Amino acid sequence: xxxxxxxxxxxLDSLFGMQKIGQTPTGNIEIDVxxxxxxxxxxxxxxxxxxxMNLAESIRENGIxxxxxxxxxxxxxxxxxxxxxxxxAAKLLNMQKIPAIVKNLSEDKAFVASIxxxxxxxxxxxxxxxxxxxxxxxxxxxxxxxxAKQLGKHxxxxxxxxxxxxxxxxxxxxxxxxxxxxxxxxxxxxxxxVFKLLKLCHQKALTVRQLESFIxxxxxxxxxxxxAKINHSQEDLLKLKSLQQEIMQKFDIKISFxxxxxxxxxxxxxxxxxxxxxLIKFLENITK
Length: 288
Hints:
By secondary structure, this protein is an alpha/beta fold. It has helices spanning 3-16, 49-62, 84-92, 107-120, 126-140, 144-151, 155-165, 169-178, 182-188, 194-204, 208-251, 276-286, and strands at 29-32, 36-37, 68-74, 77-82, 97-102, 254-259, 267-272.
């Protein structure tokens, strides 16, 4: 077992007061399948039909080796904390009862337990995991440090996951559909051009190192273009100032410039003149 799983195991111990997932627990009971409801807040959103069917076939041959974990809501009413795939497979086999361990857990601890169990089994997609972290922060007011400690993760990983969870829905759908790796997302999640870079990575099958090299080159070119733009703008401002003074002296008209409020990339020109004859003279001169 690697270090991460050991930490997750300790997290489960502290939550459940029981053996780590994967060990055979004692004191489990059998519960009528109809009494058990799925957890609406389950972090895992998608279940592969073929996987459930394969699991059902395994259960038919070997039985359920690891009881599901539930919490009691009311008399004859339970909610799944860990083991929804086993429950779905049992229903597929029309099983009447299923072995389960009942734990007295609050809603927030049950949710954390569900996340830990799914992470430990690598059942969550990248987006599902990221959104679970966001829910821990928003719904249960956990800090990044608290989430990291509870899940056995580095705080930097939690911070990256929260950035991913805040991406636009269209971007998250693209990540899910195309199975974009965590390494790629971590590099670009905070950028304004994240979607453009995601599409590029997918089209060209870029590695993380290739992506980092491309971004470095892209940013260098952008900085050089920005510097050129600043120098050019300063030169234009000097020319404009000279023309303003010339027009003022020749036509007695003051010209000023301001940013267009509807289109920030455009500017408005304001002419200040004493009378209509002055304006006509000026316009006739520039249209010759």
